[in-house]
Amino acid sequence: MSIPIVCFVGRSNSGKTTFIERVIPELVRAGYKVATVKHAGHGFDLDTEGKDSWRHKRAGASSVVVLSKGSMALFADVSDELKVEEVRDRFLDGTYDLIIAEGWKHEGYPKIVIVRDQFGEVPVSSEGLLAVVSDQPVSLDVPVFGLDEVPAVAALIMKRFPRRAQTEHGLDT
Question: Is residue 173 part of a domain?
């Protein structure tokens, strides 16, 4: 069984990262092992000029892996923008219970929309819409939560995506 993916989407600076940052500890306390994948629509550069990994990439390596006790980083060339399931299938092992992705608003992944001004402020595919988190009134056929209702959003995620250990061993229905 593939690791489930839930996306948090919304306009830039709507609070997606902050909300995700608050949901993750709720899931971890419940025993979830969580991975995150962040979409950077305008590109990014995490490898620092002058560091050995940067020097290896500059020398022509297609991929550079940096390992230390307890940490790993991968800098790799990709031919095109990857979908979240491609990242999951290529780079994440089956020990995770859930992948939280930030972005991919036009894809059909299960998603929670963060709304700060009005629903529709950013076009979002309604396919897979699980919930809306907003500081404004929103009338939709999905649960709507306030920005401080983090435990309730985490509970919705846990109900929809039970931990793999629970479902594989029949501990949760």
Answer: no
